[in-house]
């Protein structure tokens, strides 16, 4: 029996089904996340059968011949997989992707709780500072900025509605959509497979007329400084 192939239409349905009200930029971000997860799953699939082949006596040269690469190349690629067997492969890549997605979700949650009419860059800044373990927060703190000050200014900048928490879909502002687009560009520019929290931070710092940019730059957090701080 031939295995059923995963069709493009199914993947599109998965992305579209995440949020029927999502705009094109949000769906583009989700598609990048999904593609990264599929890449990791494909690596896991091949790695599983490499492990089985090795356990049953196949040499690295045999495996390399099947995959069309040298023994050294296939061994270098999959020896780490065997060493990490039983642990989640690609942990950091997946973790950063999940964190970035949570930043967007928390930003919408902040907007909803405040009764805001839209998700703005100020909500994204607030969301970024919610996670003390993220790379974006580490960069902000590493530059000597105060998270409490940033949160206070972000709270002051948020449009608080008069009728309590907002209901229904809350659209992203034009500036926030631009941040998500720029975050994707930052990830691609850095050669990263996923959008991470630091990419969102850099995206905000590229939208120079946005409230989020004003809040961060007032605390001395600039794109140039973040990029310098992130260098290995």
Describe the protein.
By secondary structure, the protein is an all-alpha fold. It folds into two domains: about 40-85; about 90-230, Clp, N-terminal domain (Double Clp-N motif). The chain is about 70% helix and about 0% strand. The chain contains twelve helices and no strands. The protein has helices at about 10-20, 25-55, 60-65, 70-85, 90-115, 120-130, 135-140, 145-155, 175-190, 195-205, 210-220, 225-230. It is elongated. The relative contact order is 0.12. The model is unreliable at about 85-95 (pLDDT under 50).
Provide the fold topology.
Layout: H1 8-18, H2 24-55, H3 60-67, H4 71-83, H5 91-114, H6 121-128, H7 135-142, H8 147-157, H9 174-190, H10 197-206, H11 211-218, H12 223-230
Helix pairs in contact: 1-2, 2-5, 2-9, 3-4, 5-6, 6-8, 6-10, 6-11, 7-10, 8-11, 9-10
Briefly note the structural class of the backbone: mainly alpha
SSE ordering:
HHHHHHHHHHHH
Q: Mean pLDDT, rounded to whole units?
A: 82
Number of strands: 0
Radius of gyration: 21 Å
Q: What oligomeric state do these chains adopt?
A: single chain
What CATH calls the topology of the largest domain is Double Clp-N motif
Note the main attributes of this structure:
232 residues, mainly alpha, Double Clp-N motif, 12 helices, elongated
